[in-house]
Design a protein that fits this description.
By secondary structure, the chain is α+β, with helices and mostly antiparallel strands. Helix content is 34%, strand content 22%. Helix 2 (17-24) packs across helix 3.
Length: 251
């Protein structure tokens, strides 16, 4: 782990190889060889690295220090949250698409799994922890299946605001995108679909693994055209029903 740790720790301090080499009084090319794993530092140099980065030698040599940035939230409400960071130590926006959903439910707290999820960019996003989720099914129409919902992480159940939309990751029921109302008396959340054809249902607090609040979404379809087509289909259905009623009356 030494080469990866040396590279990770230098980037975390936002130092160039030349800046660190000058500080530790070693050639830059030598430092580059250390970070590539081409050569290994002697014990005196290892001690200087250990002192400079304020970490003990055992962790420097045997632990994957890059994983320490993944487990950032741990409280009594939710599980540990794993995230990944870019080269500037800023949190990435991982994308959980339809294909990744099953794996996400099994490996949500595994940093190695989270690290390998696709990353998306979103302009002018505020500080915080964000994740993208692909929406499937028609329970949240007019938001189209296939849209990507970018959400911010909710650290505590008390932060949930009634009648807002959230990604709910249930320990038993999987991942859903719903409008939420808290039922504090029953210690549960009422999950409602924007599509009235789908009935609301409840999930107990203790069955919630993660909650992500809607921030924005990316759509890949012409929503006006889809809406117009739905209206046209509805009008056709109404006309058919009227004709059936007329036929029934004539009989």
């Amino acid at each position: 782990m030494l080469a990866e740790n040396l590279k990770y720790l230098r980037k975390k301090k936002k130092l160039s190889q030349q800046e660190l080499a000058d500080t530790l009084e070693i050639p830059r090319t030598t430092l580059g060889d250390y970070e590539r794993g081409k050569t290994e530092p002697n014990i005196d140099t290892l001690i200087r690295f250990s002192s400079f980065y304020e970490t003990n030698l055992d962790r420097l040599l045997t632990s994957n220090l890059g994983l320490q940035d993944y487990e950032i939230i741990k409280n009594q409400n939710f599980r540990v949250l794993a995230i990944s960071v870019d080269q500037n130590n800023n949190g990435n926006i991982e994308l959980v698409d339809t294909k990744a959903e099953a794996g996400y439910l099994e490996s949500f707290s595994d940093p190695e799994y989270i690290k390998d999820l696709p990353k998306i960019q979103f302009p002018n996003i505020p500080d915080g922890t964000f994740r993208g989720f692909e929406i499937e099914g028609e329970s949240m129409l007019p938001m189209e299946p296939g849209s990507i919902v970018v959400c911010s992480y909710v650290e505590n159940l008390s932060q949930i605001k009634d009648d807002r939309t959230y990604i709910i990751v249930g320990k038993n029921e999987g991942l859903v995108y719903k409008r939420v109302i808290r039922n504090e008396g029953r210690r549960s959340l009422i999950l409602m679909s924007d599509n009235p054809l789908y009935a609301p249902y409840e999930i107990n607090y203790e069955d919630v693994a993660e909650i992500w609040q809607y921030y924005a979404h990316l759509s890949f379809s012409d929503e006006k055209k889809i809406f117009d087509n739905r209206v046209e289909d509805r009008i056709i259905d109404i006309q058919k029903n009227i004709e059936e009623i007329k036929g029934f009356i004539k009989k």
